[in-house]
Design goal:
The chain has 2 domains: 13-238, 3-Layer(aba) Sandwich (Aspartate Aminotransferase, domain 2); 244-357, Aspartate Aminotransferase, domain 1, CATH 3.90.1150.10. It is globular, with a radius of gyration of 21 Å. Strand 2, helix 4 (84-92) and strand 3 form a beta-alpha-beta unit. By secondary structure, it is of the alpha/beta class. The chain has a 7-stranded mixed sheet, sandwiched between helices. It is built from 11 helices and 13 strands. Bound molecules: pyridoxal-5'-phosphate. Pyridoxal-5'-phosphate binds at residues 56-58, 82-83, 85-86, 128, 154, 156-157, 178, 180, 191.
């Protein structure tokens, strides 16, 4: 059996051919028609009116906050268990992230604790849908409406996941996705913002293009940056979008196969996951000693990855506070091999190695 990594991007012949065709057409590589087309496909897929693609899923969150006018002197509530960028994007926009613990059943922002953390400076709530799971989004919308806050969804990991009948990313004022290499579809780097608000759409487009009134015209209507995409990436993204529906189905099947194969190993706990709505991007489990299992898997040439740390505790922030759920998942969580191209045989091989570790054969 060849080594199995925790995650690899999957770029096929279609992407290669499309790139060659694009290069042969004399395109300028920078963002233009292909980027617009990619934005249209994303908006269509999630069911939003607008989509704006940018360089990655970190600056996308900062652009969202800037477009909403959130910045200096403002606070944004973010979950303590998330990827670093959810918090540092707030700082990039000039505001302060305020960490709040996550729910034990979804490992996403605890809305009761979030409400308790609201101060006179709070302008927005950033709900991060971790691995396609989310808190009750109807409650998140209700809370933000009642307390006059913006709702931003960091759905970087959740393209293809829904809460109720609506795609994640489309519940708030602005939703954000990432196309970094390990995501369900990738353009190497990349991020997309979605909204139904034409004013926000126009503002986000300006911010990512130096604040210019029109592309190519050096009249700066607002303070902007260069957070643009490239048509070269869009060409890959368009091919990846054609594969998204299949990958959504496959991710769910893979998760089910892992659950079935590990059903007898009581040492392994799966996080509550409603596969009708959730598309797990990574297969995540809880075990008492992830480091030990990881070492054993490494010996079998199987990659795995510890889940994110509790952000408050990281040297980058160095905060103290009570975040028991975030600390629990950070201590016990492990991501198993999750590339969309893994076969059932690969998954069975991984599960066999896990069962052996726990003496379950
Ligand atoms: C929840 C979350 N937010 C933000 C990001 C940042 O996205 P990017 O790597 O595209 O900047 C990631 C990336 O993994 C993420 O998982």
């Amino acid at each position: 059996m060849k080594p199995i990594s925790q995650m690899e991007p999957w770029i096929g012949l279609e992407e290669r051919q499309a790139i060659v065709q694009y290069l042969d057409s004399g395109g300028w590589l920078t963002e233009f028609h292909k980027t617009r087309e990619f934005e249209e496909r994303i908006a269509e897929f999630v069911g939003s009116r607008y989509s704006v693609v940018v360089s990655n899923g970190t600056v996308s969150l900062a652009v969202a906050l800037m477009a909403l006018g959130v910045g200096e002197g403002d606070e944004v509530i973010v979950p303590d268990f998330t990827m670093l960028a959810s918090a540092t994007s707030v700082m990039l926009a000039g505001a302060r992230p305020v960490f709040v613990d996550v729910e034990r059943h979804s490992y996403c922002l605890d809305l009761d604790l979030a409400e308790a953390a609201i101060t006179a400076k709070t302008r927005a709530l950033m709900v991060v849908s971790m691995n396609g799971r989310s808190p009750d989004m109807t409650r998140a919308v209700e809370l933000c409406t009642r307390r006059g806050l913006y709702l931003i969804e960091d759905a970087a990991q959740s393209l293809g996941s829904r809460f109720s009948d609506k795609q994640l990313g489309t519940w708030g004022h602005i939703g954000s996705f990432s196309f970094s290499a390990p995501k369900i579809i990738t353009t190497g780097q990349g991020g997309a913002l979605v909204t139904d608000d034409p004013v926000l759409d126009a503002k986000m487009r300006k911010i990512k293009d130096f604040g210019r009134r029109r592309a190519g015209e050096d009249f700066y209507e607002t303070r902007g940056f260069n957070f643009k995409f490239t048509d070269l990436q869009a060409v890959i993204g368009l091919e990846q979008m054609k594969k998204l529906a299949w990958r959504v189905r496959r991710k769910k099947e893979m998760y089910k196969t892992y659950q079935t194969e590990l059903a007898g190993a009581d040492e392994v706990t799966f996080l509550p996951t409603d596969l009708e709505h959730v598309t797990p991007w990574f297969v995540d489990i809880l075990v008492s000693d992830p480091a030990g299992l990881r070492e054993h898997l490494k010996g079998c040439q199987i990659g795995s990855r510890p889940v994110y740390p509790a952000l408050h505790s990281q040297p980058a922030f160095g905060l103290v506070g009570r975040f028991p759920n975030s600390e629990f998942v950070a201590r016990h969580g492990l991501w198993l091999p999750s590339s969309s191209f893994l076969s059932d045989e690969d998954i069975r091989f991984v599960c066999q190695a896990i069962r052996t570790y726990f003496g379950r054969n």
